[in-house]
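Hi,

Apologies if this is the wrong queue. I'm a grad student, and the batch job for CENPP protein from Sakesphorus luctuosus produced an output file that my downstream script rejects. I'm not sure whether the problem is my script or the file. Here is the sequence I used:
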Amino acid sequence: MDSNVYRVYEDEIQALQEEIKLLTEKYEDIQQESTFFSEEEILKSKKSFQREMQGDSKGQECPSDLKVQLESLETDLSFLMKLTGFQFTSHSKKTLEKTGDRTVQKHRLSGSCYSLSFQLEFQLLEMQSKEKVSAVITDLSIIMESGEDSGVSKFVSSVEEHGNLITFFRSLSTYAEWHEHRRRTFLHFK
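Support response: The file is valid. Your script probably expects a header line. Output copied below for reference.
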C-alpha cells in the first residue's frame, strides 16, 4: 500500500515538474519577445503615455482622437477584407531560438478566403547582418479543404515545397473568388 501512495506522489511531482518546465518556456518566450524593444524605446513610450494621461486630466480630447484613428483602421481593415476576401481568425507566434543575429519563430495562422478555410504553420528564420535583415520560411505546412479538386492539392503541395507564401495568398485569393462565383452560379440553377 505504501508503494501505491509513493507512486501517486511521484506522478504528481512529475506532473508539477512538467508544468514548471512549460511555464518556464512560456516565461522565456515572453522575455525574448520583450527584448525586441530597447530600454530607450520603452522609456519613450512610457513618457509618451504619461503625457497623454496628463493631457487627459487637463481636458484635452486624446481619447476621441484615438477613437477616430480606431474607426479609420477598422474601415481600412474592412476594405482590405472585402478586396482580398481574406479573414484571419487566429495567429500565434512562438520564439524557438534567439541568438545575436538569428531568430527562429514558429507561426500558426488560420482563416478563410471567401468560403475556403485554411490553416498555415511555418517557421520563420530571420538573420540579421550589418546592412539588412533576411527572412526565410521553412517547414511550411498548409491544411486546406480542397474538396474534390485535385488541382488545389497539387498547388498546396507545390507551395509547401517551395515555401512561397506570397504565391499562396495571391493564388488562393483568385481561386477562392472564382470558386465562390461558381458555387453561387450552380446554386442558382439548382
